[in-house]
């Protein structure tokens, strides 16, 4: 295993942050694959860091046994900027405090730049086209200009991941069941991952808006397929997915060890690790449109208490929570707008009017526009 340190742009004299990546196996070549796994891009979402710790132990053992085929890159902590941000003893790892930007948004798109550089080299050989496009994409990413520490972090993460067959971005919600976000073209491969990790629901969109990290890795392939049409065969050569490892407080060795084992089993199933192919587990969830994931908003201000638990199936009109005004004693009911899976809720227990406090995944696409929260 190689450990590499990638210096970010210095934000101030005397300050220099680094991104650390762990490299297993050998650089992927013809006939082999590359997997990229990163944890805690939202730096205050810690279950992924613990899963990465257990992944590292298992990958170390597999490397020593010579069982890793191709290349596996593990970034055990993907956001050194957010990891250092605290205000009044509160960790602030979702947004950069300088710009207010979400660390998991606004990844630059290099689809057209890579397509222009690759077009004259493309043939009727799909595998050849994948190699050419990956090479030109990585070159375009590495040559893209950056001016700030945050931009340099985004570029480095993309440089490490943009040529991978498999990209796993490990996050968590506030309080939630295991679930995933991915693009529609990734779903056939992502469905297999969902079986191994026990995902209760996968939320699918062709493009959710604001260019989150996982979509920046996978969307180039279906966009190239649209661009080149019938002229050149372009497969969906990257399965990229955001894995939501339950809730923020689910930072326990037993859970993380099992999650790491499940990810290893998936990589073995995909052929990146030698050994007998594991049996494919039964699915415990399904796929639903991200546009059908409905936010539940507080319609009043007060103490928030839930009367339903995450993981429950609910019907439209079911009461999920109460908001209690401590002065007037008025109780406001918050109801589900759709039939669906009550899959996530906030951990804060004082709600302000308009605050999103929960999410229910319905089966019908309802929302339009940008589909992700802040």
UniProtKB/TrEMBL annotation:
Pfam family, one: AstE_AspA_cat
UniProt keyword annotations, A-Z: Hydrolase, Metal-binding, Zinc
Matches recorded under Gene3D superfamilies: Zn peptidases
Domain (Succinylglutamate desuccinylase/Aspartoacylase catalytic) ranges: 33-269
Matches recorded under InterPro entries: AstE_AspA_cat, N-alpha-Ac-DABA_deacetylase
Domain of life where this protein originates: Bacteria
GO molecular function terms noted in the UniProt entry: hydrolase activity, acting on ester bonds; metal ion binding
Protein name: Putative deacylase
Organism: Roseateles oligotrophus
